[in-house]
Here is the input.
Amino acid sequence: MSSSSPMAVDDLRRREERIRLALLCLAFSSVLVLALIILFVFREGVPQILKTGIPAFLAGSRWAPTKGAFGIFPMIVGTVQVTLGALLIGVPLSLLSAICLSEFASRRVRTVMKPLIELLSAIPSVVFGFIGVTVIVPLVRETLGGSGFSVLSAALMLSVMILPTVTSIAYDALRAVPASYREGALALGATPWQTVTRVVVPAARSGLVTAVILGMGRAMGETMAVIMVAGNAVVVPTSPLHPCRTLTSNIALEMAYAAGAHQKALFATGVVLFVMIFCLNSLATFIVRRR
Amino acid sequence: MAHGLDLPRGRGSGTNAPVKTFAAEARNRPERSAGLFARLGLVLLAGICLAGLAGCRSGGRALIVAGSTSVQPVMEKIAGAFRKTRPDLRVDIEGGGSSAGLMAIRTKTAALAMSSRELKQNDPQEAGLWRQILALDAIAIIVHPDNPVASLSLSQIRGLFAGSVKSWKEVGGADRPVHILVREEGSGTRSAFEELVMKDGKAETPIDDYALVQDSSGGVREVVRGDRDAVGFVSMGALNPHVKAIAVDGTPPTFETVRGKRYRLVRPFFLAALQPPAGDAADLVRFSLGSEAARILQTEGLVGVFE
Amino acid sequence: MDPAVRTRNERINRLGIGLSYLVTAAVGLLLAAIVGYLLWNGWPRLSAAFFLHHPEDLGRGGGILPVILSTVLLGGLSLLIAVPLGVCTAVYLTEYTTEGRLTTAIRFGAECLAGIPSIIFGLFGFILFVVTLGMGWSILAGALTLACMVLPTIIRTAEEAIKAVPAGLRDVGYSLGATKSQVVWHIVLPEARPGIMTGIILALGRALGETACVIFTTGVSLETPMSLLDPGRPMAVHFYILAREGLSMEMAYTTALTLVGLILLVNVGAAWLLARKRSS
Here is the structure.
C-alpha cells in the first residue's frame, strides 16, 4: 500500500486476514440458523415420531391427536396433490409468459408487465387466500358441486400465487442466454419458435429448473392462504373436489390449542415437511449440477 | 502488495462499465476503505445493541394476557374499558389459543391466560394453575339465513355432524347436500361440542372425516355465511345477523336461556394464572368480574358469572 | 429445405408465438384484475385519518397507526439484521474463497433455509426467541425470526449481483494497489448495489407479507409498540384477522392496499436513491 497509508505491508496483510476471518464467521450464519432450526424442531418432534413408530406415523390415516391417533398420511397426500396441481396449472402459464416477454414482446409490453409481476409478489399471501375464498371457492361450488373448499380450489389459488415468482425468475434465466445463440439458430434458418424451443430454452435449463423448484417450494410452504381454501378435512382426497389438509396447514391450524403430545406431534409434522423439502432441494441441486 | 496477484476469478463480460469513475474513486479515498467492513459489522452490532437496550421496556408497566381466540375479542373490549381507569398501564391481549396462553403463563411470557377449555389436570404444564370462571358461553349451531331449518333435536345435530344425515331433506330442509364445518382438533369449542353433542351417555360418535375444518369461530361463521348448505358451531359471542342460530330441542341460544341454564350447550370461559394474581393482574381480574365488564360481556353475547 | 416442411414450421411458429402472447395477455389481465380488486375494495376508506388514528372496536373502525408502526419496526429491524449478514456471506462466497467443500456447505445451508416453509420458522422462533430466550411475543423476536427467513433471499441476490460485476473492474483496483477489502468495498459493492437493492426489496416484501410465522413470534396485540420488546400486530396479520373474523372487509382491504403501497414506496424510493447516487 503506497499512496496515503503509512501502514506496513505486514500490518495490512494481517488486517486483510482478520477481515477474511470475520467474513467467514458471518458466512456461517445461515448454516448456524439451519442447525438451530433442525435442533429445536427435531428435538421436539422426533421423539414423538419414534413413539408412534415411523410407519404408523407416516402411513397412518387417522389423525385424532387428542385421542392418541397420530397418522399424517392424508396430509402428505394432500400436500403432494395440491403442490402438483399448482405446478401443473401455474408452470406452463409462467414459462409461456416468460418466453413471450423475453423473446417476442416489444419493449412497451415488457415495461408494463415486468413491474406488474413484481408488484404482485409484494401482495401478502393472505390477500390471495381471501380472494380465493371470495372468488374461487364459490365458483367451484356453483359450477362443479361440493363445498368448494377443495384440492382444486387450493391448486388454482396457488398457481396464481406462484405466477410472479416463476415468471420473473424464468424471465431472468432466458435473458441470460447470450444473443449469439439466437443469432446462430436464426442464421441457420430456424424459425423464431424453433430458436426458442430448441436453443434458448435448453440453454436456460438450469435457471428454469430453479424457477420451477422455487415455485414448488412456495406452493408447498404456503400456509395461511391454503388454510383458507382447502377445507382442511383430514381425508385422503380421491377427487379434486374433495377437501384436503396440507402438512403446513396442519401445523398452523392446531398449534394454537395443542398441548402435550399433540403439540409434539405438530412439531413432528414439521420434521416430515422439513425432510421432504430437504430431499427436493437435494434433488434440484443434483439436477442443476448434472448439467 | 500482497494481494495484487490474488485476483478473483473472471466472471461476466461487462461491456460499458464506468471503469474510470471507480478507478478515480479508489484513488481518491483509499484511507477510508479499511474501516468499512467494520462499518458493516457496526450496523449489525448496532442492531443487536438497540435490541438489548430495548430490553428495558419503556413506556411504563405492561400486562400481557394471552390465550383462546374465542375469549380474545371480548377481553380486548374489557381491557379497553379497564385502561380508561388505569391510563398508566399497558394491556396487551394476545390470541394464539388456550394452550399457547397456558404455556405463556408457565414461561412468564404472559401474566394471565384466557382459556376456552377446562385445564388438563393430568398435563404437568397445566396442573395446579389458578383459574377463575370469567363467563358462560353457549355453543351455537349455525346455518345460512336462507336455510329453512330453524330447530333441531340434539340427536339430529349429532347425525348431521357424524355424516349420517347426508341431505337437509332428512331434517326438514331442502334436498341439498350438507356441508359440515367444525373447529380444529384441540380447540376448546370443539372439545366442548364433542362433550355436549357427540357424546350420548358413554358412547361418543366421531365427527365425519370429510367435515371442513376452520381454526376460529369467525372463520366458521364466515364460511357458513357464504354457503347455504353449510352447518357449523361457534361460540355465542361470535354470532351476528349474517348467520342463523338453530334452536336446540326448541330452545334458541340467547342471553336469558343461557343464564337460566335452559339452553343445553353451555361451557365456561376461564382466566388462569400461575398463582392467584396480585397487583395489576388482580385489578384486571376484579374489573373483568365487575358490573361494567358484565355489560360488555352481554353486548358480546356472553353471560358474566358475577352479577 | 422442403417447402412443405417450411410451411409447417412457419405454421408452428405462428401458433407458438400466438399462444405465448395469448397466455401473457391472460396472465397480465389476471394480475391486473387482482391489483384492481384490491384498489376497488380498499380505496374508498383510504384517508389521512386511516393512517393516523388508533383502531376502534377491534379494528372495525378508526385507523391503523399502531399497525403501521409495528410493520415498519418489524421490517426495518429484520433488514438491519439480515442485510449485513447476507451481504457479508455473499462477499465471502464470491470474493474470498474458491469453490470447495466449505462454499458447498454454506450454499447448501442457504438453499435449505430458502426452502423451509415460514410456518417452521414460526415454530422455531416461538421456541427459541419467545420461550427459551425469554423475549416474549415481541417486535424483536419477530424481527429475528424474519431475519432468519429472508437471509437466503439476500444471500442469493447479493451473490448474483456481485458475480455480475465485470472482473476487469477488480483488476483496475488491484493495479492501483488496493487491497482486497478496498476493492470489494469501493468497486465491487457499489457496482453491485442495484442488484443487492433488488434483493433487499424482495426480502422486505416477503417479510412484510408474512403472517404464519409472525403470529407466533410478534403476537397480535393492537397496542402501540413502545419498545422492541413490546408485542405488536403487523399489517398482514391485521388483514388476516379482520378478514377471517369477518370484522370489516373494507378495513381489511384498505390495510392490504396500504401494505402494498408501502412496499411500492420503498421500491420507488430505493430506485430514486440509486439513480441519484449514479448521477452524482
